[in-house]
Amino acid sequence: MIIDFHTHCYPDAVAAHAMAAMTGAAEACPEASGLRPEADGTLDHLRRNVHAAGADYFVQLSVVTAPRHQYNVNQFALKVNALPDAFSFCGVHGAASDSLEELERMYDAGIKGVKLHPDEQMIDLADKKMYPVYDLISDLGLPVVIHTGFDPFSPDHAHASPDQILKVRADFPKLRLILAHLGGYLDWDAAEELLAGKGMPMDTALATAGLPPEQAVRIIRKNGAENVFLGSDSPWATTAHALDYLLKLPLTDREKELIMGENAARLLGLMP
Ligand SMILES: [Zn+2]
């Protein structure tokens, strides 16, 4: 079983616009130099890439960049989630007046998780206005994937820094936080030291963009291979690229099996 646990795509009508905005932001940041999309951002291209890599399923993470987009982003999430080979996590924006109702609506529709992107939503992870959202997500029992580390949309301030992650973790022990990017895109030293092994699963998205293999192995083993999911962050890398990176790591076959699909299959209810 192979599952790409961290992907994004956009409705056809807005994919080109979204890709131009994100590519422009990345190009303006020397930190993210070398980050170039490997897909066009459409659902169709994503699915073709996922299956070309031999993967069975993918998880599409919906990012609500502004409160006014919340409903439409989640309508698209429902459309993707209805596909036989896909799951889509919903998005929620902490500044939307109806964020709690929207979470209930997504839960009732069968959505299996939530995505938060503090840097693109411009709200600190530990901002108190997020607390009612965390309370509800904890009660619903849904996992919540959060962006970690550097982001070109907020190059000077990390809205999900390790200290904020640890504060939210301490304040919401029932909240099932999943740390994207092995705990911190381009901030992997802090992730390794402060976040790995603290009981929060991680995905491997964007490890392809500069994480040395030896450090990837150290972070994965400190966190436990049973707590790591394969992720590409498509359109920024293809599933094949992410899988190739994982398979080349000096891990055991069993560790790779867990990471490339078994852990995600359990979380998604595809396996006992
Ligand atoms: Zn992502």
- End-to-end Cα distance, whole Å, is 14 Å
Low-confidence stretches: none
User: What structural category do the secondary elements indicate?
Assistant: alpha/beta
Q: Might you state the CATH topology name?
A: TIM Barrel
Task: Give a description of the structure.
- With 272 residues, this protein is of the alpha/beta class.
- It has a single domain, classed as Alpha-Beta Barrel (TIM Barrel), CATH 3.20.20.140.
- 43% of the residues lie in helices and 11% in strands.
- The protein is built from 11 helices and 8 strands.
- Helix 9 links the parallel strand 7 and strand 8.
- 49% of the residues are buried.
- The mean pLDDT is 95.
- Zinc ion binds next to loops.
In short:
The protein has 272 residues and is α/β, with parallel strands linked by helices. The chain is 43% helix and 11% strand.
Itemize the secondary structure elements and their pairings.
Layout: E1 3-7, H1 12-27, H2 43-52, E2 57-61, H3 70-81, E3 86-91, H4 99-108, E4 114-116, H5 118-121, H6 131-140, E5 143-146, H7 162-171, E6 176-179, H8 188-195, E7 202-203, H9 213-223, E8 228-229, H10 239-248, H11 253-267
Parallel strand pairs: 1-2, 2-3, 3-4, 4-5, 5-6, 7-8
Helix pairs in contact: 4-6, 8-9
Residues 6, 8, 61, 180, 205, 233 line the site of zinc ion.
Organism: Candidatus Faecivivens stercoravium
Domain Amidohydrolase-related: 3-270
Protein name: Amidohydrolase family protein
